[in-house]
Amino acid sequence: MLRTLVFALGGIAVAAGSLLAGGHDRGAGIYLICLGAAVILGTAFERWRYHNAPPAAARWERTGERFQDPTTGETLEVHYDRASGERRYVRAGQSDRPE
Predict the structure, then answer these.
(1) In tens digits, what is the pLDDT along the chain, a chain of 99 residues?
(2) Does a structural domain hold residue 30?
């Protein structure tokens, strides 16, 4: 939903910039065209550029830390990946490799 709204706003900026560039205010029109194009391209390529690495590549180690989740009351273990520094919280007694 938000992605669609951002695409629409980028399209509106390009359209308004085209109208202004064809009229008397050429500088503002070119600015709006460039801004709208940047918003559209940035939104289109964000999923390609910013994606999470697959969890299968991680090497999870148990840290020995355990605690009780105050919300659910479950006992959780802390797992750590040295390469990324990421920490995961897994129900105690589950497999060594979460998710």
Answers:
(1) 888 999 999 999 999 999 999 888 888 999 999 999 999 999 888 877 666 555 566 688 899 999 998 988 899 999 998 888 888 888 887 755 544
(2) yes
DSSP output for 46-98 = HHHHS-PPPGGG--EEEEEEEEE-TTT--EEEEEEETTT--EEEEETTS-SS-
Contact between 60 and 46 (Cβ < 8 Å)? no
Tell me, yes or no, whether 65 lies in a domain.
Answer: yes
Domain that holds residue 85: 55-89
Specify the 3-state DSSP secondary structure of 99. coil
Angle between helices 26-49 and 2-22 (to 10 degrees): 150
